[in-house]
Structures are given as structure tokens and as C-alpha cells.
């Protein structure tokens, strides 16, 4: 199958998503550090589908999401740099390879940054719940997670179908 290695610079769109995702994610980590001394020893460790706390754990668990986020940022960032390794339809050829690569990379970029934003929101809310400022993630959280991750994928599939 035709899979050339192309050096395609990041688009302005991808750079903006990176700044937004990384910026919000870094702010959530800073928020954890700023609030650390005010946090009780036990914080929410897990939530059910309704956003209610169903397990409490050590406040050290607050670093799990940032570590997963950093791991995802690194892994998906590496995959963004290797669009020739992504999965494409059989119609990939010399005339459309650049369009396919850019579209695939944009999907990955959006999903990566949506995950960072979602992890930041969860971290922020966990701190708020631990401090007694909120009781749950909120009923809206699961639908937003599902929609926030589905939209870039659906958008990408539609864009892929339009590439000739």
C-alpha cells in the first residue's frame, strides 16, 4: 500500500488546539499544587455514571489523571508526527495522500486535546468536591465526555469520506 513519509508542518488549527489543550491542562496541574495544602487526606477516587463519588482515596491519587494526560500527550503527539502509520482507505494515492494525512492528524490532535481538557475538568472538580464546594461531577459530565470525544471522530470520518 502507498504510504510515503511526508514532513507536513502543523497547521494553525492544530497549533491553536495544542495551545488550548496544553494551557488548560497545565492550569489544572497548577491548581492542584496551589490547593494541595487545603485538601483533606481523602479525595474522590472514582465516580459512577451519574457523576457521584463511589470511592474515596488518598489525595496522592489526584496525580493519576495528570500522569495519564502527560502519557497521552506524548504518545498521541508521537503518532501525530507519523501519519503514514495511521489507517486509511484503499483509495489513498499520490494525489490525495496529503489530504488524508492532514485529516488523520487533525482528528488525533483534537482527540488528544479534548482528553487533556476533560482530564483538567475532572481534576478541577475532584478538588472542588474534596473541599466541599461541590458534591458530584454533575449529570452533564458524562454526556459532555461522550460528545466531546465523538465530535472530532465523526467530523474526521465525514471529512475522510469527502477526500477523492
UniProtKB/TrEMBL annotation:
Keywords tagged on the record: Membrane, Transmembrane, Transmembrane helix
Pfam families: DUF1648
UniProt keyword annotation of Zinc present: no
UniProt keyword Membrane, yes or no: yes
Matches recorded under InterPro entries: DUF1648
Residue intervals of the DUF1648 domain: 24-70
Ranges that cross the membrane: 16-36, 62-79, 114-131, 137-158
Superkingdom assignment: Bacteria
Name the record gives this protein: DUF1648 domain-containing protein
Organism annotation: Lysinibacillus agricola
Amino acid at each position: 500500500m502507498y504510504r510515503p513519509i511526508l514532513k507536513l508542518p502543523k497547521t494553525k488549527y492544530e497549533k491553536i488546539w495544542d495551545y488550548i489543550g496544553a494551557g488548560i491542562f497545565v492550569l489544572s496541574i497548577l491548581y492542584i499544587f496551589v490547593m494541595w495544602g487545603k485538601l483533606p487526606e481523602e479525595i474522590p477516587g472514582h465516580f459512577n455514571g451519574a457523576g457521584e463519588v463511589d470511592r474515596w482515596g488518598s489525595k496522592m491519587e489526584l496525580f493519576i489523571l495528570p500522569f495519564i494526560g502527560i502519557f497521552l500527550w506524548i504518545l498521541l503527539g508521537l503518532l501525530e508526527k507519523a501519519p503514514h502509520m495511521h489507517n486509511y482507505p484503499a483509495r489513498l494515492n499520490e494525489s490525495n495522500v496529503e489530504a488524508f494525512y492532514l485529516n488523520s492528524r487533525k482528528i488525533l490532535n483534537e482527540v488528544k486535546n479534548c482528553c487533556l481538557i476533560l482530564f483538567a475538568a475532572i481534576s478541577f472538580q475532584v478538588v472542588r468536591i474534596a473541599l466541599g464546594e461541590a458534591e458530584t461531577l454533575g449529570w452533564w459530565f458524562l454526556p459532555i465526555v461522550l460528545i466531546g470525544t465523538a465530535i472530532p471522530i465523526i467530523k474526521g470520518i465525514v471529512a475522510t469520506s469527502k477526500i477523492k
